[in-house]
## 1
Amino acid sequence: MVNHRGSSHNHMRTASTAKFISRKQSPRAIAVYIFLLFAFSIFIFVFNAGNIVEDHPAPVISIQSHPQTKFLQTADDELWDAPSRHGLRPCIKPTSRYKAAHGSDRYLTVKSNGGLNQMRTGISDMVAVAYIMNATLVIPQLDRRSFWQDSSIFSDIFDELHFITTLQGNVRIVRELPKELELVPRARKHFTSWSSMGYYKEMMQLWNDHQVIHVAKSDSRLANNDLPLDIQRLRCRALYHALHFSPPIESLGKKLVDRLRMRSGKYIALHLRYEKDMLAFTGCTSGLTDAESEELRIMRENTKHWKVKDINSTEQRIGGFCPLTPKEVGIFLQAIGYPPSTLIYVASGEIYGGDARLSELMSFFPNLVFKVTWHEQLRGTADS
């Protein structure tokens, strides 16, 4: 049986094609067609080549038993080698258009808040803000009223001289306000986080009435804004080149790493993010008892500068805003392929729930060492 409909359709398509071919084409049109065909061929080649590069051979794995689950024993080169940079490289040098700020008789004082990592990021933000506002930055004060109640000053944690000299070609930094300005009225300001360049330019109007601006907290989060390239590079210079730890901390850190490597050669440094204040702030109570959940709620309610009080823990967890529990961390590391003998240095503070909750991680990886006890051993060795 002949499909006349299909034959008619093919005849029409053939006739149309013949008509198209018979139409006289200009040399320019032919050149355009050839160029587009060539460009499309190059695109297909690059796309497929990218897939070939990304398609690494799968690591050799073997399944072994464990009381809770099974884990993949991955080859050492997959577990311990440095991750691929994917062609990325450090990019902190200023562009040819960059002009260093010369500083002025206007001063920016800052109280840096949060934990150590948050303070470092906030300080790098304030370096950039001082540059934008053409101000002299006074060495930041560290938060002494936080959950940790740490009385350290800037020079206890960071190499103060290195910070000042490394950035002297960018922003003028001084250790303290001039004596004659210590008692003058200051403009006290909470800079709005995630603000643009224009916001800080507007804030310069404060110089009309004040010689000193005091910033009550340093978490401006400039990394998330569409700032000029040179401002972002300045932040990177401050964060990764200027903010070095103080010599005593550097020395203690080197001893710690040397001791860990002598014991095992390779180790994992793990920050669980499972401290009491972290869970209270985020409202994450999955796996906790009713009494623990209530304790965290009360802590959140009584901490005035935490703005959000009523938090649905289930929604937080579904949204991905909660840290993994110690047990989940154990499952995750095991699934990646780390064997139970792996040495793990737990760098975080006191884990909420104590030994009972840590035992869930230790059931997967019993070879744990802890920050406090390990540091005490190092200090004891140094004293003796």
## 2
Amino acid sequence: MQIQDILAVIKNEFQAVDALIHEQLASRVPLVEKIADYIVSSGGKRIRPLLVLMTAKAFDRCDADAVKLATVIEFLHTATLLHDDVVDTSDMRRGNPTANAKWGNAPSVLVGDFLYSRAFQMMVELESLPVMNILSSATSVIAEGEVLQLTNVKNPDVDEARYMDVIHGKTAMLFEASTHAAARLLQLTDEQANALKEYGKELGLAFQLVDDVLDYEGDAETLGKNVGDDLAEGKPTLPLIHAMAHAPEADAKLIRQAIRKGGLDEMDEVLRIVRDNGSLAYTRQKADECAEKAQQHLQLLPESDAKQALKALALLAVKRNT
């Protein structure tokens, strides 16, 4: 299955989410609407709302509430992107200038707050305390993950366990919350809900690990962001952590200095070291392991096109180049 085959399973419902997104962006403040529309229309994959719809479709219950939950998830995700780009001083996302590059930091942060608020308004309309519990907890974990990542910037002593904790919070948590909240909205059994929760978590980890690889072996035009952003910001991602643990002392020292310094002055040398020590291959292997675990957690779902699409999504997450 390719991504177009996956989307075909929920074509009508996906269109309904898009329509609801634009309906809910309405604001009496024109700049709010302008910035919010810009960021949600900038070509994202919308994998997280797709997970909600596909989970509901797997149980033949992809109704208006599932569409609303998918929209909530997309708004939460978009809010985090607006805030992240300000924190990271990013100037490009999805091949376009970031909102903060176009309008400044203050409007970007405030529109992110608007999207969070609108998401919680819609969440209340679902009238599901389990869903509210999952998503309110998730937003706290995501914020903690972002702060933890911030404290790790320019710190070459971050180990693999600490790094996996960071990416669970900042990336995998919303994947996990998407499938888990959908399961609770459908009132599935605890066993099914927990399996879907774990599927989302492992998929999110795989997705972020591949992002880490692509930051060193992708190209800016394909990725839609600047290659080497992580190194430029002094972020110790898994390819660097692995390389420091396995490279000769001089090479490990160079990476440590590059992380402490930030910037791209040592990019070519860092690339050589992570390649020579199999660090990109190691990170992809870890992503493959997460994708395999994700697929195993789908065993409790009834056989359907949606179940096959969720399996295929795990494979696509680790085979992509964007």
## 3
Amino acid sequence: MSTVWAQGDYHRFATELIWHFGPELVADTGIERGMKVLDVAAGTGNVALRAAETGALVTATDITPEQLAIGRREAEARGLDIEWVEADAQALPFDDDAFDVVTSAAGAIFAPDHQAVARELRRVTRPRGTIGMINFTPEGLAADFFTIFAPYVPAGPSPTLWGSEPYVRQLFGGCELDLVRRDYVERVAGGPQGFADFYRETFGPAAAITDPQFARDLLAFAERADEGESDAELRFEYLRLLAHLPPA
């Protein structure tokens, strides 16, 4: 899995399309100076960099070392002190109750064992702490997008299950949940073809597939979903999840 996400140029993908997730999740989880924060499946630091800017004590994990290396360089360039740890979201190498806030923005949803991920997020969060996630919904455009990959990658649970309210209530049973549906538009120059090319150049799972049929499938998806005129504009829905843990 880590080799897939090392393909393409994820930092370009994230900064051009989903970089707004970072400050949004930092604000919604109430991260502030002195808090111990863990960002899981951090990529190149979308949330972690913004959390560190508040003065929080931040640890960022990802399964892909190439992403961590980019994040580390970004942090150094900004004068931020972040601990970068290679780790699987399904088996985090941290003590129980170690963090005040644990976050993941469209990251941990891609790990295959959803139960293990939820268990680990809860385990490392202190009592009365907060887990904050941004998860694509099964009703939104992401569900159609991810079905394009099905013929080319091993089968597993859909990452969009994390955007189902009944599903996450089951995963985080016993927590007080604050769930809000939002959407955003991915804008890429060049219309549907530009969108398809951009994803194949930057998004690891797309860059890793060399079958020409996949390129045609991706273009067909972009043509169906495009709301723009000259540039491609595709609207995606997500669930912003806050899980507040009960007292000990």
## 4
Amino acid sequence: MLQLPGDSTPRTPHTSSRFSRKALRRTAAAVAVPLLIASAAACGSDDGSDDAKGAPPGVSGSLDKQPKIEKGEGDPPKDLKVKVLKEGDGQKVKKGDALNAHYVGQLWNGKEFDNSWKRKQPATFQLGTGKVIKGWDEALVGKKLGSRVEIVAPPDLAYGKQGQPPTIPGDSTLVFVVDLKKIMPSTIDGKPTDKPQNPDLPKVSTKIEKNKAPSIEMPKGKEEAPDDLISETIIEGDGKEVTDKTKSVTANFTAKLWKGGKQLDDTWAQGGAPQEIPVAQIPGWKDGLKGAKAGSRVVMSVPKSEFPKQQRDRFKSGVVFSVDVVDVK
């Protein structure tokens, strides 16, 4: 996911989005924790000390349902605590995997600060590569899909002295319960098209890099989007096609204002893992992605007229998107 104006939900590191709060609230973020997120009867404790000072708080609730986490008792632990509450039988998560997971995050005192269950969809984030908090990287790499894992992350493995105001104070110990769902595809697999790119659109690179957004070269001397929505596929995949009935796509995207090429968003910089994004919730996407197939890279120029009236001053020069469609729902 993505952090929206006025939205205090923690997101993957370096996340920031300038689009409507409602529009992207359910996207990756969820992971809402950079990096970062299961039932009362634990199968075991990775740190081997349930009864030690700062033991992980109790957790109740069945797998695949939102867990309830008790508040921590006494002083929080100074070391990472990891407890497998329910071990799954799926493959082990490896470094670099795009893990799709449901999770709840709360402070040691029991105050909840993030909850993918309330957004009604799991989040996807890349593990083991520094894209999430260190506590998640250390706790979840090597765990099996289908597992429910409790994590107690001390400040130095979470957000440190700075915290994530206003929801996470500095020097906070964080508690997560994470349900490991599945490994998601992380890059597109299409091929560049033979035709030249549309001169009315910025030039976008056709190089596919796992952890980096494509470059966008804004046209010189042109600082306003064309009046109409323009969309072009520059890398064409052969997967499922986006239609009028498509509800969401799993995608990475980068976005810039036409005027000055100001960077608005870049999901590659926010965790590296593609997110499930409802196509109707970002201006221009529903029509601009129509006909694109999974595996494709689509460039869209969205004029200010496509945005809600209250946002048009913010996007008055229009926005260009480069969208890598990894999967179509």
